[in-house]
Amino acid sequence: MPGKEVAPETGAAAADTGLTEAFLAAFRHHPSGVAIITAEGAEGPVALTVSSLISISASPPMVAFSLSASSSSAKVVERAASVVVHFVRRADMQLARLCATSGKDRFGPDVRWSRLDSGEPYYPQVELWFRAELRGRLETPGACLVTAELTSVSAGAHATRQAEALVYSNRAWHALGPVVDTASAPVLLWPDDSATF
After folding, report:
1. Are 47 and 121 in contact (CB under 8 A)?
2. In what side-by-side order are the strands of the sheet with 128-140?
3. Which of 22, 35, 77, 86 is the most exposed place for a label (fewest CB within 10 A)?
4. DSSP output for 57-116
5. Where in the numbering of this chain does the Flavin reductase like domain appear (predicted)?
6. How much is the pTM?
7. Which residues pair with 165 in a beta bridge?
8. With contact defined as beta carbons under 8 Å apart, do 40 and 120 qualify?
9. Cα-Cα-Cα-Cα dihedral of 68, 72, 74, 79, to 10°?
10. How many helices and strands, by DSSP H and E, does the chain display?
11. Phi and psi based region of residue 161 (left: phi greater than 0; alpha: psi -120 to 50; beta: remaining)
């Protein structure tokens, strides 16, 4: 069309690269809550740490989270009928790190875990957890978005929680606490860690 400028191929590629870099930078500095997902597979229990857990409905209570296509544990979770969603706190950081590290035995002899009456593996030391039944799966390039309906909850779910929240931002673990005075209150940081999820 006369008067319409067409971007050259190299310009489009550069713009795509810039978009990807901006996307990665934005989400690297976008703090996310940390959760552990456990499920039973044909070869035994699996667990993984996610920072993608979101609420999508209160009635019925439903959540969603994404799973990497490159993770063998994620493939087991994706195929499972039900899972356990653990809401971890700062005190659970070592467990979250274990479940985020490739090649580690997440149900070894030194790890405290058990099974629900319905058979799913879970970590009883985490105060707040939900059993959930998977309701939907949306395949995307390199990942799968899963929706799940919460069907039961841990016994201490309604207790007041004083423990600091655990969040993940810029490839580091952070203990999240209230900031009373932004000019003088320090940001509570957990030591830098290289685990990614």
Report:
1. yes
2. 44-50, 35-41, 82-87, 128-140, 143-153, 61-68, 54-58
3. 22
4. EETTEEEEEEEETT-HHHHHHHH-SEEEEEE-BGGGHHHHHHHHSTT--TTSTTS--EE-
5. 27-175
6. 0.79
7. 89, 176
8. yes
9. 130
10. 3, 13
11. beta
Residues in the chain, total: 197
The two tokens of residue 142 are 């390199």
Predicted confidence at residue 37, as pLDDT, reads 98
Tokens matching residue 10: 């190299």
Q: List the Cα angle 170/172/175 in 5-degree steps.
A: 115
For 27-73, the pLDDT digits (tens) are 887 878 899 999 999 989 999 999 999 999 999 999 999 999 989 89
Phi, psi (5° rounding) for residue 99?
-75, -10
What sign for the dihedral angle of Cα 153, 156, 162, 166?
negative
If you compute the radius of gyration of the chain from its CA atoms, what whole number of angstroms results?
20
At 122, phi and psi to the nearest 5?
Answer: -155, 170
